[in-house]
Amino acid sequence: MSTLAEEQSSKKRTFWFAFLFVLVAVIGLTYVKWWPYYHKAILSFQTNSIGDSILQDQISGTFTWSAAVDYTVTYFQSVWKAAILGILLGSLVQVLLPTGWLLKVLGKTSFGSTAAAGLASIPGMMCTCCAAPVAVGLRKKNASVGASLAFWIGNPTINPATLIFMTFVLSWKFTVLRLIVGLVLTFGISYFANRFVKNPTPVSMDKLIEDAEVDKRSFLNRWLTSLGSMVLYVVPAYVLSVLILGAARFWLFPQLSDSMSNSLIAILIFAVAGMLFVIPTAAEIPIIQTLMAMGLGAGPAAALLITLPSISLPSLLMVAKSFPRKVLVFVSISVVVLGIISGLIGKLIF
């Protein structure tokens, strides 16, 4: 009877822990993402704009460290709530969600696990840096490379709010291109990334569950340990790399002559620059809108449409210890290549 009572108590505890995670996620996303984006969607419909470009000062600016600091401050003013939520969820996923369930759903290298994680990313609507801590948390819980990547990449690339803004501010052509390439990245590239994990060590589900049960520390103790590790691991690299990119942006996004503004070289430059650079959620829309108003061609703009939100140098650094190096190189190259292809499509038909 005592064993049966312990099992029932364990099941109840697991249920309430999972319920708490979902509750925190729903409340956090409602406050940080869903409600603000509802109003922003109305704004984009009424004004064909969602605000100024975060690169606005680049139009007439030159490099100074003061400008780099200003960009860093502006960036974190835009993302701090989502960044905190991402770190919070990344730490909670390690202590609240049941190990056995995560392994069954997200622990396989099958397309099913990748698809499940990609679909789970859709309501998150986070930028690549804010989704990175959750991807780190999933990897620490032994989610597969493909599933963790799908969640990380899917958040920014197939964000439904961004697609709505894009339709009203840019055009439906940009939206269709972004959706198609976003689906390829989220479900295709993430799935094939599993192939770069050579001979993964077989994971014993029973042993992992047993190890989780052996950990008798209180929930608060385990969560604070997870949170502290996440903060120490993620925050320093995040802040420093954003500062560096804030300084480098004057060279990453050069002003081009009329003859170069829609050239293949411009597409290549902006595809690579977009992959490295860091922006808040949906900031690629006003950036593209502003740059095109200044004369940038549709080709480089379409390249930025894909590479700017997908990944960035800061987010790559944040997940560097959680994924094999070959996987991150493959993902980075894939983003650039798909950005170039999108740029060529944009050059031809936009």
From TrEMBL:
Coiled coil: none
Record's keyword annotation contains Membrane: yes
Subcellular location: Cell membrane
Recorded GO CC terms: plasma membrane
Superkingdom in the source lineage: Bacteria
Keyword Cell division recorded: no
Membrane topology: Multi-pass membrane protein
Keywords linked to the UniProt accession: Cell membrane, Membrane, Transmembrane, Transmembrane helix
Annotated family: Belongs to the UPF0718 family.
Protein name: Membrane protein
